[in-house]
Amino acid sequence: MHSCFRSPLLLLALFALLTGCGQDAEPAPPNVLLVIGDDISFPHLGVYGTDWVRTPNCDRLAAEGMTFTNAFTPNPKCGPSRSILLTGRNGWQLGQAINHLAYWPDSVRTIFEALAKAGYHTGYTGKGWAPGDPGKKDGKKRQLIGPAYSKIKLVPPTSEISDVDYAANFGAFMRDRAAGQRFAFWYGSLEPHRGYEFGSGVAVGGYSLEDIDVVPAYWPDVDSVRHDLLDYALEIEHFDRHLGRILDTLEASGELDNTIIIVTADNGMPFPRVKGQLYHDAHHLPFIVRFPPGIKRARTQVQSLVNFTDVAPTLADYCQLDAEALADLGWFHGRSLRPLFEGKTPADWPDHVLLGKERHDVGRPNDQGYPIRALREKDLLLVINYAPERWPAGDPRTGYLNTDGSATKSYILNQHRRGDDAFWDLNFGKRPPVEFYDLGSDPRCVNNLAASPEHAATIERMRTRLENALADQGDLRMLNRGAEYEAYPVAWEEQRNYYEKFMAGDTVAAQWIVRSDYETLLPAEQ
C-alpha cells in the first residue's frame, strides 16, 4: 500500500536527500509534540462539525494548520495502534506487537528512540505505549518514548478523570531539557478512556441530552446512552483543556512555531461495536497538524488518505535523522506526509488502507483472538472474519471483555436478557465470514451487503487485492501461520489464561468491565 524504505542503502539515500546542501537546504530540525487522545472517534472534535463536544484548542490548531478528514489506524486498539504510530509499520509486520497486552519485540526500535539517539530530549505524560511490556534495556525498563512525566497531580473534575496534570508535567519536561536542545514529547491523555462518572456530562459539563443530534444506528436512542455520550464529551473537553495549557507553555518558551504538532487518537470511542473492531467508527480518526514552516496553507482541510504508518516516517523526514539513526530504525512501511503538507498529492498516493487485528482483550479459551483483515477503498469496506465461530466482542461468560463496561453496554445487555436482541446482535453477536459495506450510504456499517449478488464481483476483486497485499507484506495469517500470532503470550501474567482461570472459579480482575457484564450461560442456553 505504501512505498517502503527497507534497506540500509535506501535509508542512506533518504538521508542524502534530507540533508542535501544548497539554497533549498532544510531549515533547522523542528521539535515534536505528538498528542494522542485515548479513544476518540472521528468526528468528535469541534472542527469536524460535532456541536456537542467543546474543543477550542484543537479547533485553534486546525485554524492554524491542516485538518485531515481521512486518517486511519490499521488496528484500532490502544497497544497495537500505538505500536504502528511509533514504528511506521503495520501490525502484521511487528511480530507479537500486533496483539494487545503484548511484549514489545526486542529488535524493533521506535521513532522516539531514534530521536533520543539524535540528541532530542524525549518524554511523555499520561499514557504512552500501553498496555503491554516494553522489555528491558541495560537492565532497566525500556523507554520506548522516553521518561515518564506524570508525577504532578491535580484535583480532577470528576471521580473517573485522571489526576495527572498533563500540562504541568509538560512544563517540568521543558525545564529538564538543556538550553537550546530539541525535544520530542508525547502527550498521552488518559481521557476519554473508560470509566466515566455517569451523568457528569450534564452535571459537570453543563451539556443537555438534547445536544446529541444523532445516536448511532447500532445503539438504542435512550437517555442512558445519551448520558454516556455526553460523559465522553466531557472527558474530551478535559483532554482539550490540557492541550491548551501545553500550547501556552510552548508559546511562552518561543518554541511554538518551530514545533510540529500532530493531534490524533489511538482508536475510536470506547463504546460497543467501536473500539477494538474494524468498522468505520473504530478506525477513522481525527488528525490535525500545525507546523508553520512546513505547511503551505493554513486552515486547509485535506481529503487525501493518511495512514498511521505515515507518522514515524514524517517525523524522521522533518527531524532530519542521520544515517545511523535511520539504520537503527530499520525500515518504514509508510511514507512522509510532506507532500500533503505542501499542498500536493502525488499520483501514486494510496487510495486504500489495509486493516487487521488478532488478539485484543483476553477472555476466550486459550487466549484466542478474533482475527480479522479488512480493506477500505474510498467508500467501500470489505471485512474478512477468519474465525467467525468465535465471539467477536469476547466470550459472554467472561463479560465480553473486548468491550469496555459502560452504560451503553449495560443497557444493550439488559435488553438482550429480556429477549430483545436487535442491538445485541449488532454489538455482541457472532458475525459471518464476510462483511461488505457501502460507507457512502451506510457509514455506521449496519447493512451487510456481502450476500448481494450485485456486489459479488467487487467483493472477489477486493478480497484478492487484500490478501495478495498482506501476503506480500509477510502477514502470517495469509501464509497459513496465523496460529503464531495466537501463540504469543499475554504480557500481563494475571490476565494470561483468563478464560480458564475464570471458568475454574478463580477471581480474576478485569477493571475495564463491570460485574453485570458477565453472562452465566451462553446465548443459545438462555
Distance between the amino and carboxyl termini:
45 Å
Task: Calculate the mean pLDDT score and round it.
Answer: 95
- CATH homologous superfamily placement of the largest domain: Alkaline Phosphatase, subunit A
Radius of gyration: 22 Å
Which fold name corresponds to the CATH topology of the largest domain?
Alkaline Phosphatase, subunit A
**Unreliable sequence segments:** 1-23
In DSSP terms, counting alpha (H) and pi (I) runs of 4 or more, how many helices? 16
Report the sheet with the most strands, covering strand number, pairing sense and barrel closure: 8 strands, mixed
What is the count of structural domains? Answer: 2
> What is the strand content?
5-15%
Question: Would you report the number of β strands?
Answer: 16
CATH architecture identity of the largest domain: 3-Layer(aba) Sandwich
Organism: Neolewinella lacunae
Domain Sulfatase N-terminal: 30-318
InterPro entries: Alkaline_phosphatase_core_sf, GAG_Ulvan_Degrading_Sulfatases, Sulfatase_N
Signal peptide: 1-24
General description of the model:
This protein is 29% helix and 14% strand. With 526 residues, the protein is an alpha/beta fold. The chain folds into two domains: 8-341, Alkaline Phosphatase, subunit A; 353-525, no CATH class. β14 and β15 form a beta hairpin. The longest helix is centred in the middle third of the chain and has 31 residues, at 223-253. Residues 1-23 have low confidence and may be disordered. Pfam families: Sulfatase (PF00884). Keywords: Signal. Residues 30-318 form the Sulfatase N-terminal domain. InterPro entries: Alkaline_phosphatase_core_sf (IPR017850), GAG_Ulvan_Degrading_Sulfatases (IPR052701), Sulfatase_N (IPR000917).
